[in-house]
Amino acid sequence: MIIPLPELFSWSAMLGYLARSSDETLYRISDGAVSKLFYEHGEMALVRFEYVSGQTTAFLSSAHHLEASFLAPNGEAPSPRMKALVRRYAEEWFDLDRDLTDFYALAQRDPLLRGAAEEFHGLRIVGIPDLFEAICWGIIGQQINLSFAYTLKKRFTEAFGRQMERDGELFWAFPKPEDVAKLQVQDIAVLQMTARKSEYLIGAAKALVDGSIDKASLLTGGWAQAERRLLAMRGIGPWTAHYVLMRCLRMPEALPAADVGLHHAIRVTAAMDRKPTEAEVRELAKAWAGWEAYATFYLWRTLY
User: Is 131-301 a domain of CATH 1.10.340.30?
Assistant: First the structure.
């Protein structure tokens, strides 16, 4: 299955971000390709995404694209619904339908963004298309370092997610809300998760199962309304809300202004002798209007 790519897209920049943790358990990078397990409506599919560069000859002209190959161990072809799901997932995962021309023009005028935009040219926000996964990742990552957050996400996934084995390797799909909603706090707490976070994860799962929150409705009213609805959930504060707005709902105005990593990136990039205050971050972000999420993502990328 061919997935078209925009001109402003760098697969190497995307891989550089995707490879940031050896504890990542939801995809595998090998030989420049990314393999990921999907599970939806009782159907499982292992998909390998491989970059194919464009070429122009006297006889042929083709644009660069991703080739998505389904690696079913039993040889069964994926259903049309699964193929459509994988295509849409890739489009959101790699933010393929966004024109970055204006962002790069803005970055060239901004001393904080210019260097990152040049170094990581073609990088797009790597999303978390699944709302439950995005909320869980935001909750898990609260008030701990990134390395431990990856460790906890791996434990959570391997305890409650689905798996598939291929060529001696295990691939994992993130737990479904209907499965997590049935858990007790202690089921999650034994993974070294706090009892409070365990409660929040179960509460988020129940909210998605009973329909009190869903991705489609969050996308209908703009970022401010989506933020209010997310903040009404237990365990979701401004940082987590804007993380979900940015990584799942793909709202470019999202700005996790209190984020410690963002503060550190600004301090280093601007050669400040201290970290900026949240008020100073918001003042700086006025120059990023409409592209706050991308400015944040690029500044984050400078940290590793």
Answer: yes
